Amino acid sequence: MAAAAKMYILTARRVFLYCSSTKTLKLNTGATIPVIGLGTWQSPDEECYNAVLSALHAGYRHIDTARIYRNEEAVGKAIAQYLKESGTSRDKLFITTKLWCSEVQDPEKALKESLERLKLEYVDLYLMHWPVSMVNRGELVPKNAEGTTEIIPFEKWNYVETYKIMQKLYKEGLTKAIGISNFNIPKIDYLLAHPGVEVVPACLQVEIHPYLPQFDLVEYCTKKEILVECYSPLGSTGAPLLKDPALIKLAEKYNVSPACIAISWAVARDTIPLPKSVHEERIVSNLKIVDLAAEDVSTVNEVSKTTAKRLVKPDWGVDIFGDSAKL
Ligand code: NDP
């Protein structure tokens, strides 16, 4: 840990260590993953470049991007610049990108194109972004005349076929690990039970924050040795989470921000938060966590009992999040 990143906070009742997280977790591949990653959704090119470069200089070693964010080139440019400026080697960083839904029938082409945009020889984690297959007509999100997203029916192509090809990319070394995103328990069960699926996903990336703690899903993944990444850990853009009275009270107790409480809570659960910011000050502070007392983890756990909320709900996600949990 960099000495400058360490800070003790003295409050009326006790002293808290508030410091840049260098915690890592072990993937089922044997590799390690830095527990806090920088999110880059809704970070347009120039902002994204500056954000990634600032993050790397601040000590982040984990960046999360995706084909659909349309910023892989900016992420790649910032990584190259950082490696040049700092003399750090590529293998010290953990870079994730994601396979978009309209490219699921040819993940090899999609990953090679992502690597070209990122100017990398491999990524550390390649995620299937959604268990959804969209028609490929050249647009990333194809719409029909009614404005609905055009989906390939499950019987014609589904995520198991896509995953089997992703296994090949993993074995070839184009990605050091493969994983899934926006899957629920029935879908993971279906995937794992399928003949030809030999590689257990290293990670599942889903929406998780104090308003959507996903206790069952986290417990299930822990049993299967799948690490859980939390997207929208701060409640995403403009969310009321950071104004929640319980989080504010804990922030006052630890003398930190509510964002720090949300991130520290995710880290305390051995999950991997991916806070996004394009502001340097926030980028720096989002890497700093406090060691929450067990009773305070429980307090945050309770928040969803009164205010449960899913924030990311695209039209193609309806079946995934519905109670019927269709395959
Ligand atoms: P977050 O929960 O990370 O929240 C981001 C918002 O919070 C932005 O508006 C940001 O503003 C603001 N913010 C950041 N830090 C602070 C702070 N310290 N105090 C107050 N406000 C703050 O939302 P995301 O939805 O972006 O999720 C994080 C990442 O997860 C994404 O960027 C992406 O990488 C991934 N993701 C993956 C999805 C998937 O389907 N797999 C779906 C959604 C997200 P500003 O930038 O102006 O600072």
UniProtKB/TrEMBL annotation:
Look up the EC number in the record and give it. 1.1.1.358
Residue ranges of the NADP-dependent oxidoreductase domain?
36-304
Q: Which residues bind substrate?
A: H129
Task: Enumerate the GO terms in the molecular function aspect.
Answer: 2-dehydropantolactone reductase (A-specific) activity
Reactions catalysed, as given in the entry: isatin + NADPH + H(+) = 3-hydroxyindolin-2-one + NADP(+); (R)-pantolactone + NADP(+) = 2-dehydropantolactone + NADPH + H(+)
Say if the entry is tagged with keyword Oxidoreductase. yes
- Keywords attached to this entry: Oxidoreductase
What's a Pfam family this protein contains?
Answer: Aldo_ket_red
What PROSITE patterns would the database entry show? ALDOKETO_REDUCTASE_1 (PS00798), ALDOKETO_REDUCTASE_2 (PS00062), ALDOKETO_REDUCTASE_3 (PS00063)
Q: Where is this site: Lowers pKa of active site Tyr?
A: K98
Tell me a GO biological process for this protein: ketone metabolic process
Q: Active-site residues?
A: Y69
This chain's protein is named 2-dehydropantolactone reductase
Q: From which organism does this entry originate?
A: Pichia membranifaciens
Mind giving the lineage of the organism this protein is from? Eukaryota, Fungi, Dikarya, Ascomycota, Saccharomycotina
